[in-house]
Amino acid sequence: MAIGRPNTGNLGAILMIERRLSQRMLAGCFAAAGASLLAAPAVAGTGQPSPRQMGFQEAVTPVAADIRWLHDYVNVIIFVITAFVMCLMLYAMWRFSEKRNPVPSRTTHNTTIEVLWTVVPVLILVTIAVPSFRLLFFQLNTPKADLTVKATGKQWFWSYSYPDSKFEFDSLMVPTKDLKPGQPRLLAVDNEMVVPVNKVVKVLTTGADVIHAFAIPSFGIKIDAIPGRINETWFKAEREGMYYGQCSELCGKDHAFMPIAIRVVNDRDYTAWLDQAKKKYATDDSVRPTALAAAGAQ
Ligand SMILES: [Cu+2]
Questions:
Q1: CA 257 to ligand 1 center in whole angstroms
Q2: Stated pTM of the model
């Protein structure tokens, strides 16, 4: 009795279904990729994510622009290496298959190729390390600051203090039901941090309770806000507008609901804001001794 026959029939049918399915899946993947490419906005979001965004949010500071450049540069290197290794593997599978190469050679060691596959990766790493270190120094060396703002992460909102002008205020997320037109959900806040355009802003961060992290994708900054210590970063926004970020360190129940909103304005608007902010957020140091504000003034 041919035991194998019914099985062969089943197997054939299964294989055919599988082939059709994989064809369909492949077509689906291509369609999805095509649709997302077509539907993707010309530029990724500025200051906030945009629907079907590919890649980073648009860079508005020199540091963020450099981060984007390094990312694209390393991506090209990754692509070339991956393509090269894939071609090499495909060629080896084809050329040295049992059919084409029944008696394998017993060659071992080839000094030239061994030197090459040691030296070439080292050179590739050097071409990555040089711009990467340059970017690190650029990020970590704060230029002379025009303005200092201290951001204190609290469960679950941010407080901004302007030590030069001696005021501090809290910045809380606007609940979805209270959003005004144009305000992005989970990102809009009641009191935005306001800074002037084209000015170096030094940001000091600290945490009042647990570790939070201050991050603005468009500015290319992300730095931990740790209780008991002050961290420092800087940005120079080169375009006016609203820029959003979020706490980027899991800090508790409402971690997802303590956005960071920074409004970058021209000098005139900044002076006007500063004048009214001084009145609005005036703190009487005798009533409210803020050790945090003092720490920021250093
Ligand atoms: Cu947090």
A1: 8
A2: 0.75
